[in-house]
Design a protein that fits this description.
Family: Belongs to the class I-like SAM-binding methyltransferase superfamily. rRNA adenine N(6)-methyltransferase family. RsmA subfamily.
Protein name: Ribosomal RNA small subunit methyltransferase A
Function: Specifically dimethylates two adjacent adenosines (A1518 and A1519) in the loop of a conserved hairpin near the 3'-end of 16S rRNA in the 30S particle. May play a critical role in biogenesis of 30S subunits.
Order of helices and strands: EHEHEHEEHEHHEEEHHHH
Subcellular location: Cytoplasm
Number of domains: 2
Catalytic activity: adenosine(1518)/adenosine(1519) in 16S rRNA + 4 S-adenosyl-L-methionine = N(6)-dimethyladenosine(1518)/N(6)-dimethyladenosine(1519) in 16S rRNA + 4 S-adenosyl-L-homocysteine + 4 H(+)
Radius of gyration: 20 Å
Distance between the termini: 59 Å
Number of helices: 10
Oligomer: single chain
CATH superfamily of the largest domain: Vaccinia Virus protein VP39
């Protein structure tokens, strides 16, 4: 790969370029790309991970916001004519436009400053995504994969696990990047459920009930849902109102949202 195009990482884009060849190979092995699959990479940078994937798939779509990186990417990957570069903001990108002839797979070293809202944006396309593999700040991966009762279990955990099976794969140290970030990173695998284990009748209501539930996470459900649910309704749901929100699983929150939706 050509190294003749220097590019200083831009703080406003949250850029940290992965350069550790061993880590890149390990990520590609986790993704296990196959020829003919439609893989979409968010923030390809200079193409370090891109090359490992497109050499297997032969075609690929990448979404890059930094226009100065695009010519570098094209030069570094000139041998791959079926690399489709979309100069766009992934936060506003319509990923369904790439799923016209089958589901897509999504990968990326996501900017830490927008990783959570970007994941929520991607979850809105979950039905058209086979799987997602992301490099994220380790704490974000821990929150995504947290289970009920864990300290980091919260709104992101519940909403991600409503849509997906979430698995933390391995940690990546700061020395694998240029410039090195101040924190550890981790690789996460998110596989959207083919059939949702529990179905919210109103997704906006589920989001609202989860947000309200965790607004004051050290308080009890009775306090957090005051004016929303009474003790009789908690009893009907077989949920103890003296619990704290991190004790509830995804199904509990869905049942709360469905009860409130049905009640109108």
């Amino acid at each position: 790969m050509s190294k003749s195009h220097p590019h200083k990482a831009r703080k406003r884009f949250g850029q940290n370029f992965l350069h550790d060849v061993g880590i890149i190979r390990r990520i590609v092995a986790c993704i296990a790309p196959k020829e003919g699959q439609r893989v979409v990479e968010i923030g390809p940078g200079k193409g370090a991970l891109t090359e490992g994937i497109i050499s297997a798939t032969k075609r690929m779509d990448v979404v890059e916001l930094d226009r100065d990186l695009i010519p570098i990417l094209r030069v570094n990957l000139f041998r791959y004519p079926d690399l489709n570069v979309h100069e766009a903001d992934a936060m506003k990108f319509d990923f369904s436009s790439l799923a016209q002839d089958g589901n897509i797979r999504v990968v990326g070293n996501l900017p830490y400053n927008i990783s959570t809202p970007l994941i929520f944006h991607l979850l809105s396309f979950a039905e058209q995504i086979d799987d997602m593999h992301f490099m994220l700040q380790k704490e974000v991966v821990d929150r995504l994969a947290a289970r009920p009762g864990d300290n980091l279990y919260g709104r992101l955990s519940v909403m991600a696990q409503y849509y997906c099976r979430v698995e933390s794969l391995f940690i990546v140290g700061p020395e694998s990047f240029d410039p090195p970030p101040k924190v550890d990173s981790a690789i996460v695998r998110m596989v959207p459920h083919k059939t949702l284990p529990c179905v919210a009748e109103d997704l906006k209501m589920l989001e609202d009930m989860v947000r309200i539930g965790f607004q004051q996470r050290r308080k009890t459900l009775r306090n957090n849902y005051k004016g929303v649910l009474n003790d009789e309704e908690f009893a009907a749901l077989e949920i103890d109102p003296s619990l704290r929100p991190e004790r509830l699983d995804v199904d509990d929150f869905v049942r709360i949202a469905n009860l409130v939706s049905k009640r109108g």
